[in-house]
UniProtKB/TrEMBL annotation:
<dbReference type="InterPro" id="IPR036465">
    <property type="entry name" value="vWFA_dom_sf"/>
</dbReference>
<feature type="domain" description="DUF58">
    <location>
        <begin position="54"/>
        <end position="254"/>
    </location>
</feature>
<dbReference type="Pfam" id="PF01882">
    <property type="entry name" value="DUF58"/>
</dbReference>
<dbReference type="InterPro" id="IPR002881">
    <property type="entry name" value="DUF58"/>
</dbReference>
<protein>
    <submittedName>
        <fullName>MoxR protein</fullName>
    </submittedName>
</protein>
């Protein structure tokens, strides 16, 4: 395949250009206090902080040190000032570049969407002056980049992503999906420590009970976000008597109706259900990203919705 085609293989330059699109990405959407996305990069405190957030009516339990006595006297009703305290935290990206990601029926390959998504998030984190690290993995190995600040460090993460992305091809096999996925979460647990933000970017291929257990343990002391990359054809096979599938060199023909379609659809639905149930149970925002629409627009809209 043509590695100069940006829809099939990603490039360093392609990821660098996303810096300007990352401006609109916001990890602190205006959510209710009990929202899963609230406090992602800031925490609303009823006390002294750095930035004034809002003026509102006093509620039982509020810190009286935050009372605005002038407004209280003028209105005759108790008011307090709420501040936002900025908190620094490490961010770790888990970037999936396995063979199963080397697929795309329309638009771009899932592996390319994954890389672009990682770049957008990376630029946003670096722009905020925070530390970012990554674990970039394929079916056989994983590269761990420790969390540091700055654009030069982000460039090292890009190089690791591009390197593994360019190793993908039609001849790659994904025979140990659960093993590679679980190993990536296990290694993440070893490096992330406490109070970090972990963002998994992939399609969840191979997710099983062990993955859930690993993610749950990380979630006890960290925040976790999952970006689920999907392709329309993978989600639902077209109703055709015969379907021809090609990897660019070879092709096969198979029956897309009857038991084949039903079994495939059941497997897909089972995986998505497990993924969604796990996310809800452990309060992990699950952001769905497709291979067709611009990644930056999807990411901005996903955070506005607050995750699924």
């Amino acid at each position: 395949m043509d590695k100069s085609d940006s829809d099939i293989y990603v490039s360093i330059e392609q990821l660098r250009k996303l810096q300007y699109q990352a401006v609109g990405v916001n990890f602190t959407p205006r959510q209710a206090v009990n929202s899963v996305l609230n406090g992602r990069y800031s925490s609303k405190l009823r006390g002294r902080g750095l930035n004034f957030e809002e003026l509102r009516h006093y509620r039982p339990g509020d810190d009286i040190r935050c009372m605005d006595w002038k407004v209280t006297k003028r209105t005759g009703k108790p008011h307090i000032k709420v501040y936002t305290e900025e908190r620094e935290r490490n961010v770790y990206l888990i970037v999936d570049q396995r063979a199963a990601m080397f697929f795309g029926s329309k638009g771009k390959m899932k592996s390319v969407i994954c890389a672009e998504l990682a770049a957008l998030i990376g630029w946003r984190i670096v722009g905020a002056g925070d530390r970012i690290g990554a674990l970039v993995f394929n079916d056989d190995s994983a590269s761990v980049i420790p969390a540091k600040r700055g654009g030069q460090h982000l460039a090292q993460i890009f190089k690791s992503i591009v390197k593994q992305n360019h190793q993908l091809g039609a001849s790659n096999n994904s025979t140990r999906a659960s093993d590679s996925l679980n190993q990536s979460w296990h290694k993440t647990a070893q490096v992330c420590g406490h109070d970090s933000l972990i963002i998994y970017i992939g399609d969840g291929n191979g997710w099983n009970d062990k993955t859930t257990h690993l993610m749950k343990n990380i979630r006890r002391h960290n925040e976790v976000i999952a970006c689920n990359i999907i392709d329309a054809l993978e989600q639902k096979l077209p109703s055709m008597a015969q379907m021809v599938v090609s990897d660019g060199k070879l092709q096969i023909q198979f029956d897309a109706l009857g038991k084949n379609q039903q079994q495939y659809q059941q497997q897909i639905e089972s995986k998505l259900t497990l993924y969604a149930q796990t996310a809800r149970k452990y309060r992990v925002p699950l952001l769905t990203i497709n291979t067709i629409d611009p990644v930056s627009t999807q990411l901005i809209n996903a955070f506005r919705r607050g995750g699924e």
